[in-house]
C-alpha cells in the first residue's frame, strides 16, 4: 500500500484549486504575462471552446426552464425567454413535493457523511496507528464494499431489511452507505495515519494518555482537515447515489432528489419546459454544494498544510 | 496500559503499534463496529447472492436448488454477451477518451494557460470542466436527454433552424445512434475527473524542468511526452482503474435514458441484472449476472494492480 498513499492523496486534494501549490512557493517564472505567441492564443481559444461545450447543456437548461411551452415552440431553445415564466418550475416543485425530497437527501447524505467519517477514523486508527496484523488484507476486504456492483447486494439486503422492518425507511439507505463510503475513507485514512508523526504520539503516551484519549484529542484534531474533505466527498457521493435509493425507498415520502426527478421523466404530463425545469431543480443543489465545497476544501487543505 | 516510561522497543515487526507501550492486537476493538457493519451489509449479502446463482427463485416461493443451470444459460445468452460488448463501449467513453483528452487538457491548462495567462484562469477552466462530474449521474443524463428529445429537443430544433433538418434524428430512440449518444453523454460526464486529478499531479512537477527542456529546444509535444506523462503515471493508473470499474458498473444513465433499448442496443450488465430482478422476477438469473459482473471487476482490478507493480519494479531497476 505504499504507492497508494500518494495516489489517494492526489484524489482527495485534487478537487480543490491550488491547495498543494500553496504549500510550495510559486517560482517567479510562473507569473502570467510571459510573452504570448499567436499559438498560445489559439490554444487558449481551444480551452475556451471546450469549456463552452461542457457548460452549454447546463446553460441551455437554465435558459429554457423559464420559458412557456409556446414560447419554446415558437422561438426555439436558443432565444431569451420572452417573459419570466415560472409555472413549469412551480408545477414540478409541487408535483414532487420538492422540499420533502430535499430534506430526505440532506438528512441521508448528512448522517452518512458523519457516520462514515466516524467508522473510517476508528478503522484507520486500528490499521494505520495500531498496525494490527494482516492490515493489508483487512483493507482489501473493506475495499470490496466500494468495488462491488451494488446489484449483488440488492436482493439479500431487501430481505434483511424487510425482516427487521427497515425496508422503505431512510435508515436502510443510511446504513448501507455508511459502509460503502467508509470503505474509501478507511483506505485513505489508514495510509495517512500510517505516516502519523511518531513524536506526537510518543509525547501523548508519555503524558499518560490512553489510546482512546490519544485518538480523540491528538489524532482526530490533527487530521481534521483531511476528515473535512472526506465529509464533503461522502456527502456529495451519497447525494448522487441512485440504484440503492431507487430500490429501497419506494414510497413517495422517502425518495431522494435524484430518484424523484428521474422517476417522473417520460411522464405524459411533462411538457418540454417542465422537463427542463425538473432538470434545473436537480442541478441547483449540487451547484450550491459545488460553490460551498470549493471554498471549504481550500481552507481545509491550507489549514492542514500550515500546521 | 500506558506507562510513564515506555517499554523498550521490541524488534518484532507488526506487533508494535505507533504508540509506544501499546500492542497491536489491543487495537482490534476499534475495528469491531466497522467490521460488524461490513459483514452485515456486504459480506453476508455477497455470499447469499452467490448462493442464489445456483437456484431458481422468483421472489415468492423459497429458492429451489438447480445447480449450474443459471451459469449454463448465461454462457449461451446473447443478451448477456451484448451487455458486455456494450461495457467495452462504456469503457471507451468513460476511460479511453476522457483520459486521453484529459491528459491534453491538463497539460494545456498547466503548462500553457497557467503559465502565460495566469493560474486563476486555469483554475476557472478546471472548475468548468469539472462541473458535470458533480451532478448526480441521473441528473446529468436528464439534462442531455432533454437536449436530445426526439420531436422538440434543443438539438433537433437547432438543426432545423440552421437548415440541417435532414440531420434531425431520434438520437436515443433509434438503434443506430442510441449507443453513440449514450457514449457522448458519458464522455461529457467523465471528462472533468482526469483533468482535475492530472492537474493536481502536475503540481509535483518542478516548473524549472519545463523551462530547462524549453531552453534545450524541446517542443511542446516532447515536453508533454517526456515530462508530463512520465511524472503523472501513477495518477493515470488510478484514473484508468477507477474509471474502468465505474464503466463496468454504469447503471443510472442507462436506466434514465434508454432502459437498455431500443432492443438490446444499450443494455449493460448492471441494467440487465436489475431488469431480471425487478421486471422478469428471475432473481436467480439476475444474481448470476451480477456475480459474473463482480468476477469481471475483480479480475480487471487484480490485473491492473499486477501490471502497475511490474511497471514500478522495472522503473526501480532502471
In terms of DSSP E residues, the strand content of chain A is under 5%
Number of helices of chain A: 15
Order of helical and strand elements of chain B: HEEHHHHHHHHHHHHH
Mean pLDDT of chain A: 79
Going by CATH, what is the homologous superfamily of chain A?
MetI-like
Q: How much of the sequence of chain B is in beta strands?
A: under 5%
The name of the CATH topology of chain A is: MetI-like fold
What would you call the structural class of chain A?
Answer: mainly alpha
The radius of gyration computed from the alpha-carbon positions of chain B, rounded to a whole number of angstroms, is: 25 Å
Could you describe the largest sheet of chain A, including whether it forms a barrel?
none
Briefly, what CATH class of chain A? Mainly Alpha
Q: What is the straight-line distance between the termini of chain B?
A: 47 Å
Our Rg estimate of chain A from Cα atoms comes to: 24 Å
List SSEs of chain A in N-to-C order: HHHHHHHHHHHHHHH
CATH homologous superfamily designation of the largest domain in chain B: MetI-like
Mean pLDDT of chain B: 83
Verbal overview:
Chain B: Its main location: membrane. Chain B: InterPro entries: ABC_transporter_permease, MetI-like, MetI-like_sf. The complex is a heterodimer of chains A (307) and B (318). In chain A, 75% of the residues lie in helices and 0% in strands. Chain A is mainly α and 307 residues long. Chain A has a single domain, classed as MetI-like (MetI-like fold), CATH 1.10.3720.10. The longest helix of chain A has 35 residues. Chain B has 2 domains: 47 residues, no CATH class; 239 residues, Orthogonal Bundle (MetI-like fold). Chain B is 69% helix and 1% strand. Chain B has a two-stranded antiparallel sheet. In chain B, a hairpin with a 7-residue loop joins strand 1 and strand 2. In chain B, helix 3 runs parallel beside helix 7. Chain B is flat, with a radius of gyration of 25 Å. Chain B starts with 27 loop residues before the first helix and ends with a helix. The N terminus of chain B is likely disordered. At the A-B interface, helix 1, helix 3, helix 6, helix 7 and helix 8 of A face helix 1, helix 3, helix 4, helix 5 and helix 6 of B.
Amino acid at each position: 500500500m505504499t504507492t497508494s498513499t500518494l495516489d489517494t492523496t492526489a484524489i482527495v486534494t485534487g478537487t480543490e484549486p491550488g491547495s498543494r501549490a500553496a504549500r510550495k512557493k510559486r517560482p517567479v517564472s510562473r507569473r502570467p504575462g510571459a510573452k504570448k505567441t499567436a499559438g498560445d492564443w489559439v490554444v487558449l481559444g481551444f480551452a475556451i471552446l471546450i469549456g463552452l461545450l461542457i457548460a452549454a447543456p447546463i446553460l441551455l437548461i437554465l435558459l429554457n426552464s423559464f420559458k412557456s411551452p409556446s414560447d419554446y415552440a415558437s422561438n426555439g431553445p436558443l432565444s431569451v425567454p420572452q417573459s419570466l415564466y415560472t409555472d413549469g418550475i412551480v408545477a414540478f416543485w409541487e408535483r414532487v413535493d420538492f422540499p420533502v425530497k430535499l430534506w430526505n437527501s440532506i438528512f441521508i447524505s448528512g448522517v452518512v457523511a458523519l457516520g462514515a467519517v466516524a467508522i473510517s477514523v476508528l478503522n484507520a486508527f486500528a490499521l494505520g496507528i495500531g498496525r494490527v496484523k494482516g492490515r493489508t488484507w483487512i483493507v482489501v476486504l473493506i475495499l470490496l464494499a466500494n468495488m462491488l456492483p451494488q446489484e449483488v447486494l440488492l436482493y439479500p439486503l431487501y430481505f434483511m431489511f424487510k425482516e427487521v422492518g427497515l425496508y422503505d425507511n431512510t435508515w436502510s439507505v443510511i446504513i448501507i452507505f455508511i459502509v460503502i463510503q467508509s470503505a474509501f475513507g478507511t483506505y485513505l485514512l489508514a495510509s495517512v495515519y500510517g505516516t502519523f508523526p511518531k513524536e506526537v504520539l510518543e509525547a501523548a503516551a508519555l503524558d499518560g494518555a490512553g489510546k482512546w484519549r490519544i485518538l480523540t484529542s491528538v489524532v482526530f484534531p490533527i487530521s481534521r482537515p483531511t476528515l473535512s474533505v472526506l465529509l464533503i466527498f461522502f456527502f456529495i457521493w451519497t447525494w448522487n447515489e441512485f440504484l440503492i435509493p431507487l430500490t429501497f425507498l419506494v414510497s413517495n415520502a422517502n425518495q431522494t432528489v435524484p430518484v424523484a426527478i428521474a422517476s417522473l421523466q417520460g411522464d405524459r404530463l411533462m411538457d418540454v419546459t417542465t422537463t427542463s425545469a425538473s432538470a434545473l431543480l436537480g442541478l441547483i443543489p449540487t451547484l450550491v454544494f459545488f460553490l460551498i465545497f470549493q471554498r471549504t476544501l481550500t481552507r481545509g487543505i491550507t489549514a492542514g498544510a500550515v500546521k | 496500559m500506558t506507562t510513564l516510561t515506555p517499554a523498550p522497543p521490541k524488534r518484532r515487526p507488526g506487533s508494535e503499534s505507533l504508540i509506544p507501550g501499546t500492542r497491536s492486537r489491543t487495537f482490534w476493538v476499534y475495528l469491531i463496529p466497522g467490521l460488524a457493519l461490513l459483514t452485515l451489509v456486504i459480506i453476508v449479502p455477497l455470499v447469499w447472492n452467490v448462493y442464489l446463482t445456483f437456484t431458481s427463485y422468483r421472489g415468492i416461493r423459497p429458492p429451489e436448488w438447480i445447480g449450474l443451470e443459471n451459469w449454463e444459460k448465461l454462457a449461451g445468452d446473447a443478451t448477456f454477451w451484448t451487455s458486455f460488448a456494450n461495457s467495452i463501449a462504456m469503457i471507451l467513453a468513460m476511460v479511453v477518451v476522457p483520459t486521453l483528452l484529459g491528459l491534453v487538457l491538463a497539460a494545456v491548462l498547466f503548462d500553457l494557460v497557467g503559465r502565460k495567462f495566469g493560474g486563476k484562469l486555469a483554475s476557472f477552466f478546471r472548475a468548468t470542466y469539472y462541473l458535470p462530474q458533480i451532478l448526480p449521474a441521473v441528473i446529468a443524463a436528464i439534462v442531455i436527454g432533454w437536449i436530445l428529445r426526439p420531436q422538440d429537443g434543443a438539438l433537433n430544433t437547432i438543426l432545423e433552424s440552421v437548415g440541417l433538418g435532414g440531420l434531425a434524428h431520434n438520437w436515443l430512440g433509434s438503434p443506430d445512434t442510441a449507443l453513440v449518444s449514450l457514449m457522448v453523454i458519458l464522455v461529457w460526464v467523465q471528462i472533468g475527473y482526469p483533468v482535475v486529478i492530472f492537474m493536481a499531479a502536475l503540481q509535483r512537477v518542478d516548473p524549472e524542468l519545463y523551462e530547462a527542456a524549453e531552453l534545450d529546444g524541446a517542443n511542446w509535444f516532447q515536453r508533454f511526452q517526456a515530462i508530463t506523462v512520465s511524472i503523472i503515471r501513477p495518477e493515470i493508473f488510478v484514473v484508468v482503474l477507477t474509471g474502468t470499474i465505474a464503466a463496468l458498473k454504469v447503471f443510472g444513465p442507462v436506466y434514465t435514458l434508454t432502459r437498455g433499448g431500443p432492443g438490446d442496443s444499450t443494455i449493460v450488465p448492471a441494467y440487465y441484472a436489475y431488469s431480471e430482478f425487478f421486471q422478469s422476477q428471475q432473481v436467480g438469473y439476475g444474481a448470476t449476472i451480477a456475480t459474473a459482473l463482480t468476477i469481471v471487476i475483480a479480475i480487471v482490478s487484480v490485473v491492473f494492480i499486477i501490471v502497475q507493480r511490474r511497471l514500478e519494479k522495472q522503473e526501480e531497476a532502471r
